[in-house]
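User: Show me a protein chain along with its predicted structure.
Assistant: Here is one chain, sequence first, then structure tokens.
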Amino acid sequence: LMSTGRVRHAFAGLAPAPITADIAAQLGLPGTDGVIIAAVVPGGPVDDAGLRPGEVITAVDGATIRSPEDFLAQLRARDPGDRLPLTV
């Protein structure tokens, strides 16, 4: 920030949403752990990887994801351009 005047963040190109008990029941999921992809940014990294709204992310680089906050914490720990291995 001090050298360029800009802040750069890793960007996945998705909106993570919590999995409620109702959503878990509708999708036949065993529980509410993970995040559902609520939206995908066209042309973003997740779109390029072929992921679509409605899919569920359960882990990032082997770390279990229980909530959108878990997902965002994993994303914040990355640099722009890093690969983010997802379990979907």
